Amino acid sequence: MRVGFNPHKDKIQQASEYVHQVIIPVYIPNQEGYFKDSFAILKLCLESLCATVHEKTFITIVNNGSEKIVADYLDLLLKENKIQELIHTENIGKLNAILKGLVGNAIELVTISDSDVLFLPNWQKETLKVFKEVSKAGVVGIVPQFKTYESNCGNVLFDSLFNSKLQFVPVKNKEALIRFYDSLGWDRNYNQDYLAYTLALEVNPELSVLIGSGHFVATYKKDIFESVVTYIGYKMGGKSEGYLDTLPLEKDYWRLTTVDNYAYHMGNTIENWMVVDTPNESKENVIVEYSFLKRKKINSILYFIKNRLFVKFISVKILVKLFLKWKRLPKKMIHNY
């Protein structure tokens, strides 16, 4: 039987002291074959993360069915207060693991990352700068990639089409861009023009952003996830690939990326360049109150116009060429870009 009165009943939940959450799902079932170096890479990932975030960061690790040595390592990180939340589960699939980490808090920004990301100094400060200066930013990546404006960016292009500050600009960090595609195992026989120019929007004289964002590490406004599904029926791929892409569009949020590179994708093989000393992020970068405005879902007609009809229209071959020319891609690149 129950005796007495629970002292926590009807108590209001205190606001969180954290302003930024990072969620990393981890699946390392063994250390053989494809996963031979994965544990060592996970350690580099989490060490770089802990070294580059401010003290108001809430780190959530979802152990998605990894072997015992990995689980024990993560338990130790939690015990040492290097991470703030650890969820152990069987292998329920990458996106389902992410969904587990998303619920249960009201932290305004959430970074969702793969476990093979090497975080670089200032990634968090530069991410926040984009959210602060671009009210419609909903997703902000920190690793520039090829032609990201072609994916889930119909609303950005629709809204900015007649903005003269939307134009192709020289790539800021060519070496980092090359390293990213090396990490995917690509040969370097891709279009070299992609290493030279990229589509950007000048927000103000001190800030420009790239249009579009990749998936393996990006930061989201938490209000995007006010309503989420509870289960995705794929381990990876399938419908799970597009779920995180379409949610921001429902509130007309833009996908953007920092102009410079603030993380590396390591892949599944250790290389010498990955083992570097990463200085701690300055605590002066802490911003206690983010206070982002929440957006409501746009109506279905406007969604269709921006993200279906306009995308189909602007994808017509002759219009693509006109767009590239209009937005100042060098003439010699237009034919093959």
Automatic annotation (TrEMBL):
Organism the protein comes from: Flavobacterium polysaccharolyticum
SUPFAM superfamilies recorded: Nucleotide-diphospho-sugar transferases
E.C. code: 2.4.-.-
Protein name: Glycosyltransferase family A protein
Domain of life: Bacteria
UniProt KW keywords: Glycosyltransferase, Transferase
EC primary class: transferase
Domain (Glycosyltransferase 2-like): residue spans on this chain: 39-155
InterPro entries the UniProt entry points to: Glyco_trans_2-like, Nucleotide-diphossugar_trans
